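Fold it.
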Amino acid sequence: MILNQTRPLLLLLDVETSIVLGTVPTVACGQMLMLGLLNTQLSHLPLQVYHLRERWDGYDFNAEQQLYTMSRGWTMTPAPAALVTPQIHERRRLMRQRISYLHPWEIYCQGALVRFNGYMSDGVQAFVRSELTAGAASTYVQEYASIHDISVENALQELHGKVRSLGMVAARNWAQYEKIAQGMAMARDRDEQELLMKQGFDILYNNAYI
């Protein structure tokens, strides 16, 4: 049942056959899957459109018994038996196995980043960066200096330091995510995945740099 979902349902398609290989939890996860499963593409069902959502209620895109092909206009039809080859089943197996590691890894990286975000949201960071381009003439920098009872010059130094530090943390986190996720997207068995996950935890929690 998908009637209670309000976000797009992400699907990974086999380009050659248009067979839906299965659902994907996030766009980032789908992008990594495409890296390791060639000739695939990420698509979606716009479940936000309620009258369209009803068309797909009851479909199980991860079931073994019935596979579907998708054509223009998100039209689903049962996949012809001739297209459901052992290679398609192997691609689906690899997809599910890789998702079972890629998605948790993405969540762990997001969790590691949350520890540093604090109270300054992305929107506030963007605003501060914009204000810093005006230097001492910025009304916000002057107000920040007044609130903290410091000079405008010190306020500029503090704000530059804060946004640069947050930017470096986010960029490092992204690089750490990508390093391990790329390996997971190519791994063919769980032993490889477990080793990559262990390396990932070492990167996230034991080492400051890659």
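The chain has a mean pLDDT of 89.
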